[in-house]
Amino acid sequence: MNRAVYLEKMLELQKNFSIKLITGFRGTGKTTLLKIFMDHLKFSGVSEEEIVFINFEETESLSNFQQLYMYVNEKIENLDHAYLLFDEIQLVAGWEKAVNAFFLGAPVEIYLTGSNENVLVNKIAPLLPDNFDIIRVSPLSFSEYAEISSKNVQVYENSDVANLAIFRDYLNFGGMPIVAEGTETKKIKERLVAGLYYEAIFKDIIRVYSLRDSDVFNAIMQFLALNIGQPIRPNAINDYLLESNRKTTSFTLENYLKLTDEIGLFKKIRRYDIKKDAFLNGAESFYCVDTGICNALLNFSRFDEMALMKNVIFTELWSRGYEIYCARLGKMTIDFLAVSANEEIYIQVLATDKKSSLGKLLRPLHKLPESANKLLISLKPVKLKGSVKNITITDFLLSK
User: Fold this and answer.
1) Which of 81, 139, 303, 386 fits a disulfide with 175 by CB distance 3.0 to 4.6 angstroms?
2) How many Cβ atoms are within 10 Å of 89's Cβ, its own excluded?
3) Cα→Cα distances 165→30, 109, 149, 171, 300, Å
4) pLDDT, tens digit (0-9, with 9 covering 90-100), for 286-338
5) How confident is the model at residue 150 (pLDDT cuts 50, 70, 90)?
């Protein structure tokens, strides 16, 4: 699999005198990206001796920074230049000390991967402030998924029909590479996605943070999956837990929600009041890193097309570098306000053919100035008048 977007980012950042931190939820392809980069280096003329690749989940002999430093230093001490590619570096106790020593004392380029961005940044920033770049790896985008899946789905004469068929598959199973690349049955795909979730919980939360009550944590994740894109208040989560005879403290709840963000499982977005030009406190919305993971949390027993569409749009906007908010205009809501250095886009999402739903979605957009960039993303084409533009979700996801 060629994840060209991320390889290009790595090559672009090569000129920076910095440590490259490659982060993202477990299973999104960070290890694969390192190997693609390693192949690129070899193709460019870099010898194998100049590349030190270590996957710390596959070795137990380098468990602390002293062992790591001695092992790597022996390999590179006589080289004019070297590339250090360390996969899941957080498993090495005190790793930042070894990395700091290599960065300041040897002619090396350093690339580190880890599922928890905060852990990496909090360790390296005190030693090397402003000397690191972050590359965030997401599950496959729909365009990447469609390129792979088009070889495995029924052939249609109409490309729009084919794209829609692939998109529904994408909504259901998500974009984790291990799922997209295979031709397994529906049940096997469901097991693969569920396995990725539980592996991430064990390796990135239970093992790292000594999580005491995984049942409560999973129940909270299930609640977030049931309420994708909806404003959520802590009291609602507590009520949900009590219904299943589970209890937790407000401190634990807050901590668990923080952990989901740190490992990239769910992202929280704030509400923005357009009239007041201010952010609103509380009742934030959550979106999952991957629709397959979201469905796995619910045992693939519930398929909310509207919520999953919003989730896919959120992850696409996030991967394109937008800051994303839920906007409020009076008592009306706009699904997304996407902000970049160059533009602001107000986005509503439509998954039904009902005219009443369309009118409700368009109302706040029509209240905005004519000059505002207003977009209705729908499952099927919609004829609109005025300044609101329409694009189908597959066209939006396949656009650059």
Assistant:
1) 139
2) 26
3) 28, 43, 10, 10, 18
4) 999 999 999 999 999 988 999 999 999 999 999 999 999 999 999 999 999 99
5) low
Q: How many domains does the chain have?
A: 2
Alpha carbon dihedral 359, 163, 318, 198, in 10-degree steps, equals 110
Query: Cβ neighbours of residue 301 under 8 Å, at least 6 residues apart?
Result: none
| Cα angle, residue 273 at apex, residues 269 and 279 outer, rounded to 5° | 55
216 plus 324 within the same structural domain:
yes
- Residue 281 has what pLDDT? 86
Same structural domain, 120 and 233 = no
The 10s digit of each residue's pLDDT in 188-216 is 999 999 999 999 888 888 887 878 788 99
If asked whether residues 228 and 193 sit together in one domain, one would say yes
Q: What is the pLDDT of residue 159?
A: 66
CATH of the domain at 59: 3.40.50.300
Choosing from 99, 114, 136, the residue where a domain stops is 136
Q: Which two tokens stand for residue 275?
A: 């009239």
Q: What crossing angle do the helices spanning 186-201 and 214-226 adopt, rounded to 10°?
A: 130
Checking if the pLDDT of 156 tops 50, the result is no
